Amino acid sequence: MPHVLTEDLAVRFARIALGHVTREYPNNLDHALAEPADARTPSDLHPIFYGSYDWHSCVHSYWMLAYLLRRFPGFAPAADIRALFDAQFVVEKVAAESAYFERPTARGFKRPYGWAWLLKLRAELINHGEQSWSRTLAPLAEAIEKRFQDFLPHAVYSVRVGTHFNTAFAVRLAADYAEAVQDSGFASLLLDTARHWYGEDTDCPAWGEPSLDDFQSSALIEAECMRRILPEHEFLPWFDRFLPHIAQGEPVTLFQPVTVTDRTDGKIAHLDGLNLSRAWCWRSLARALPTNDLRRSVAETAATHHLTAGLSHIASDYMGEHWLATFAVLALDVRV
After folding, report:
1. Residue whose C-alpha is closest to residue 319's, from 118, 58, 117, 52
2. pLDDT tens, 102-145?
3. Which pLDDT does position 336 carry in this prediction?
4. Helices (H), the chain
5. In terms of pTM, does the model score above 0.90?
């Protein structure tokens, strides 16, 4: 399988996503009930993002479809994607999705992973140019941006796990939104928060990786967050301090693709995503290094090894199929 995003791969990934973004069941519904009337179906609660097994996977699958449509506007699934977006990104459905976030029991709903992906989706729709989809989704994105603005000043500590709660990943994606909407205040909040959380980190041992249900590298996503958000003259010295032994292939665990023993287990299947998300981070970090820097080729080789391990299992089982293609796109096309 090629290690670049080809049109053939884009067609395959889009077809996978189109097959599950409107598939309501099985569904891992993250929903707190305040009264009996709150016991409702996924599509009743979330008229746009009810598929793909869970809300956040549905959101980032929409992002992937939007991104692939922009990259390959004439590819075979284009008409189906446009029809889907025309049907789903309408005022009434966005209003219902926004109203869900106003529920007292939804204060922490999908924080921060789902929040970040929704902002990333809005940023991608903005990149499409003059499209009604972006304008229609704006109220939901603005509500979630407000959630970030309220939450981050209280977030004295980061969350460094390799799952949905990782704060570096959320800041990394939110920075794309802040840039797309030209919100300098939000961008400054993200930058200040990242400096507070990670600015003094040195000599990362990565000793906690991998855990059995990781789909992100806590070390590499922190580095990718700082690459995205810091000015270049700050990032390179920070990176030198944070992972000082990359040229020697250390920490060793970051260079070894992980083994997945049961792809029907939703948590263990996360490890396929870890291989893909590590590949994304390694590729992105490599591009940030000078062309004559030995670490650049070391990082690119590590990315290739992780891509090889992950790309063959995008649709091995629905526990991976409902989300892995998104991370394959991140890894294959680092311009995202």
Report:
1. 52
2. 999 999 999 999 999 999 999 999 999 868 999 999 999 999 99
3. 66
4. 7-18, 42-45, 55-71, 78-88, 91-100, 113-127, 132-151, 167-180, 184-198, 218-229, 232-242, 270-288, 294-310, 318-321, 324-332
5. yes
